From TrEMBL:
It is a multi-pass membrane protein. The chain crosses the membrane at residues 12-34, 83-105, 117-133, 145-178, 199-217, 223-247, 292-319, 326-347, 378-395. GO terms for cellular component: plasma membrane. Its main location: membrane. PANTHER family: CHROMATE ION TRANSPORTER (EUROFUNG). This is Chromate transporter. The keyword DNA-binding does not apply.
Length: 397
């Protein structure tokens, strides 16, 4: 059994590390990368269970894509699997941002032609995920309408609160439509969780205790590392809406207080946009700038610890609740809304921040053809898109 667990842990780490090295393009693209690897290739869970997990993580504060990865690791290998899944996905960008802080100190801009290609690649990745998830999660007209309404709602109300409200409404619509019948394509999506409810309750208690006690620890210790621990744990505990929302919150915490300058902060933001993995790893750059390697380690740990505790606290109960008939009906609507939300992310911000010219669109089309028709792996599409982006940048001067 121990040998079997070691093999499973190794697979979790190697898979998440591959994703951490190749997942460019932000949270919406990450959802596409994860689906391609965990649902299509590894078959660790099906589309329905995956969409359930994505929907759950949309309700939680923190980086949704990282939480999805943590949740999949938890399903696959318990607490150790959850940690390894997070570690593999997060550490490549952490190391790159620490290196960036060390080399240039935040004083220089951060731009290159290949970054253009890494932004373009998000478009085919998201479209590819939309096609696969839409086929499984919106197979009838009611759910297609729910997805369309969710997409329109997110575009009209582009806030974290608006997104959560739309998911709730979609769940209510799913319950009304499907409460007396099993919707087409609605499997059980069984996802056994290797964590007990007692562990889940302990995670919730620890989450709340740290949120309450860390300000007092900061005041009593009077040490810069205590400041970093409090700031990043608090921001990671309360931020909804993904990486772009965390940026102004962190800026208000560190720039006015004099821990770093505005120019250094913006340079770190540019660097975080250019590396794979979650945007929340900007914490590594800020921590490194504030207090070197110890500051980077504490900042990253504090930023992601709330997400880890929340996922561990929620999933043991979610695994039981999601198989109730009334909740299955509601989840049919929620899963359709996830497809709509992903479509809305494609419309804004993925396409506007990636496609500026005809050649950008052509590069995106080439990437989509590689994924959808040539069945090439995402890492190859990332590589090709990076080269095409650099070529376009050079040719257009």
């Amino acid at each position: 059994m121990e040998k079997k667990n070691r093999g499973r842990y190794g697979e979790i780490l190697s898979t998440s590390l591959k994703l951490g090295l190749t997942s460019f393009g932000g949270p919406a693209a990450h959802i596409g990368y994860f689906r391609d690897e965990y649902v299509k290739k590894k078959k660790w869970l099906d589309d329905r269970a995956y969409a359930d997990l994505v929907a759950l993580c949309q309700f939680l504060p923190g980086p949704a894509s990282s939480q999805v990865g943590i949740g999949i690791g938890l399903m696959r290998g318990g607490l150790t699997g959850a940690f390894l899944s997070w570690f593999g996905f997060t550490m490549p960008s952490v190391l790159l941002l620490v290196l960036f802080a060390w080399l240039v100190g935040g004083g220089s801009g951060f731009d290159a032609g290949w970054i253009r290609g890494l932004k373009i690649v998000a478009v085919p990745i998201v479209i590819h995920a939309l096609i696969g998830m839409g086929r499984n999660l919106t197979p009838d007209w009611p759910r297609l309408l729910i997805a369309a309404a969710a997409a329109a709602g997110v575009l009209l109300i582009p806030t974290a609160a608006g997104q959560i409200g739309l998911i709730v409404l979609a769940g209510a619509a799913g319950y009304v439509i499907y409460r007396n019948r099993q919707p087409a394509g609605a499997g059980d999506g069984e996802t056994p969780i290797a964590v007990s409810r007692k562990t889940g309750i302990a995670a919730w208690i620890l989450f709340v205790l740290l949120l309450v006690l860390l300000p007092a620890v900061r005041a009593a210790a009077g040490h810069l590392l205590a400041v970093i621990l409090d700031v990043f744990y608090r921001v990671g505990s309360i931020v909804f809406g993904g990486g772009h929302v965390v940026l102004p919150m962190l800026e208000r915490e560190v720039v006015p207080a004099g821990y770093m300058g505005a120019e250094a902060f913006i340079a770190g933001y540019g660097a975080a946009q250019a590396v794979p993995g979650p945007l929340f790893t900007l914490s590594a750059y800020i921590g490194m700038t504030m207090d070197g390697i110890p500051g980077a380690l504490v900042a990253v740990g504090a930023m992601f610890l709330p997400s880890f505790l929340l996922v561990v606290g929620m999933l043991p109960f979610w695994a039981v609740l999601r198989n109730r008939r009334w909740l299955k009906a509601a989840l049919s609507g929620v899963n359709a809304a996830v497809v709509g939300i992903l479509f809305a992310a494609l419309i804004d911000p993925v396409i506007p921040s990636s496609i500026f010219t005809f050649w950008d669109a052509a590069a995106a089309a080439a990437g989509f053809a590689l994924l959808q028709f040539a069945k090439q792996p995402p890492w190859l599409v990332v590589l090709v898109s990076g080269v095409l982006g650099a070529a376009i940048h050079i040719l257009q001067g």
